Write the structure tokens for this entry.
Amino acid sequence: MDVDASFIRAHPGPPEISMRRLILATLAVTALAGPALAANDTPPTVAPKFESVPQDAVLSYNLIGLNITDAANNTVGEIKDLAIVHDKLVGYIISVGGFLGMGEHYVAVSPSSVALGYDADAKKWKAIIGATKDQLKSAPEFKYDGKFKR
């Protein structure tokens, strides 16, 4: 391969090294830019899969705002939110204490910790947990911050 003298003065070293540096630099820029661009991309869409909903299913609007009682029928909290991970319900966010939104303490509990049922006579849903209000108040707090900030 013939290379003229001006190229050698401007680009010291064999031309293969310069080409190699150019390729490595291009790959590095591409690799670093890839994840940044991917983070802003919208998720791919898929065709809907339709489901039938059985009559004994519980809908989210039946849960959010539902008071939770203890075994003695004392109100101990209220379901404020649902935690869903990978299409699966993994927790109820329960508000304990507070008044008119002030001083509320939030805790996240497993769905298996709360017994749900429909009272046909009263025509409303009921939720019972095996804990007192004080036990829930002393549980680790769930905070609405970071990506959960309201």
Observations:
- The longest helix spans residues 15-40.
